[in-house]
Design a protein that fits this description.
Blueprint: H1 2-35, E1 40-56, E2 59-74, H2 97-124, E3 129-130, H3 134-137, E4 143-144, H4 149-153, E5 160-164, E6 167-168, H5 172-180, E7 187-193, E8 196-202, E9 205-210, E10 216-221, E11 224-225, E12 231-232, H6 240-263, H7 275-287, H8 290-308, H9 316-329, H10 335-364
Antiparallel strand pairs: 1-2, 3-12, 4-11, 5-6, 5-7, 7-8, 9-10
Length: 367
């Protein structure tokens, strides 16, 4: 029964987080479409069969069975849709290019807006906010606690941890995640030091940690740290909106750099997570307190916004690419060309989802 409640809590945390992200994203498309005079036929949270819905005015608001996304269906949006002469002025396909661009771009922009609102509210309370650069996330040792397992193993300030066991390490979080899951277990470490590699063995000390829900768990700790360069704090509540912009820009830049490093294989693609990983980190954040959970929603919102801007057909970025080509050619791509591109994009998206799910299984199964 306790296990069922545990997984139920994680599922609920995942559903709330994903629902908030999808709703805000799709509301961006919906709101701008309405402002541009385009008729919105359906606003759906989720895909697949309709669970419940209600018609309000000309739009049907729906909750669907598969909670892994959502969509806004506009008049004349699907390729090959026939639109009557009187409806053309409210059709997406017949809207001016700038209006179509604004409608499509609104979803990712609203995801960034959601993160900005969360960051601004956070900073307005006077609380510190973690806004790292990529260097801040690297697995470099900047301090070693005297008497700690790290000191006993021979770790030094300036070392870079590049491997634990057979797992390559590229970020600080990858390293700490393995350490936390292995209290009292000897771990072989490969570190870069002065241009060469050395192998050390370290045994994380066991420490009790109490979660926000009162659950007590045992985690591993080795006694290394990084400097707190990545902390942003507003000096006055009136500075929070400005600092919120800085925080949003910082996390967005970090996300873009991370994706670029994955594409160039500087970071392992094993870091790509799917719905199971998102569910786990959502549940973990929720157990650690409301503020951590809301902070996670902001980070996921930025990730969703940036990923949707990738120039892949079926994503918002793919549609924006079509519009850019249309602006250069001064005519839309043929329906056949767009259909083929979307089929390729859909195939790539399915492959990415399967790969992310594979990572979920490999990363979460041992736990």
């Amino acid at each position: 029964m306790q296990a069922i409640q545990h997984y139920g809590f994680y599922a609920l945390a995942f559903a709330i987080a994903l629902g908030a992200l999808v709703a805000f994203h799709e509301f961006g498309h919906f709101w701008v479409a309405r402002r541009c005079g385009v008729k919105v036929l359906k606003f759906s949270i989720g895909f697949g069969p309709k669970l419940t819905g209600r018609q309000v005015g000309e739009t049907e608001y729906v909750i669907s069975a598969i909670p892994l996304g959502g969509y806004v269906k506009m008049l004349g949006e699907d390729l090959g849709d026939e639109v009557s002469a009187e409806d053309k002025q409210r059709s997406f396909a017949h809207a001016p290019l700038l209006r179509r661009t604004a409608i499509v771009a609104a979803g990712p922009v609203f995801n960034l807006l959601l993160a900005y609102l969360i960051f601004t509210a956070w900073l307005a309370t006077g609380a510190p906010l973690f806004v790292p650069s990529f260097a801040d996330l690297a697995s470099n040792v900047e301090a070693v606690v005297p008497g700690s397992p790290a000191e006993a193993a021979g770790l030094r300030k300036g070392d870079k941890i590049v491997q634990i066991g057979d797992k390559r390490i590229t970020t600080w979080n990858e390293m700490t995640d393995i350490v936390k899951r292995n209290p009292g277990t000897p771990l072989p470490l490969v570190v870069e030091r002065d241009g060469r590699t050395e192998t050390l063995t370290i045994t994380p000390a066991a420490r009790k940690e109490k979660l926000a829900d009162g659950t007590e768990i045992e985690i591993g700790q080795i006694g290394i740290a990084k400097a707190n360069r990545a902390i942003l704090r507003s000096e006055h509540v009136l500075m929070a909106p400005v600092d919120g912009l800085e925080a949003t820009w910082g996390w967005t830049s970090l996300t873009v750099v991370g994706i670029a490093k994955m594409l160039t294989r500087e970071i392992s693609t094993d870091n790509i997570g799917g719905p199971l990983t998102i569910a786990k980190i959502s549940g973990d954040a929720a157990t650690q307190g409301f503020s951590n959970y809301v902070f996670l929603i902001a980070i996921l919102s930025i990730n969703l916004g940036v990923l949707n801007l990738l120039p892949v057909p079926v994503l918002d970025g793919g549609h924006l690419l079509f519009f850019a080509i249309e602006a250069v050619k001064r005519r839309p791509l043929s329906i056949r060309s767009r259909e083929l591109a979307q089929q390729v994009g859909f195939f790539l998206l399915i492959c990415l989802m399967l790969y992310a799910f594979r990572n979920d299984i490999l990363n979460l199964w041992p736990r």
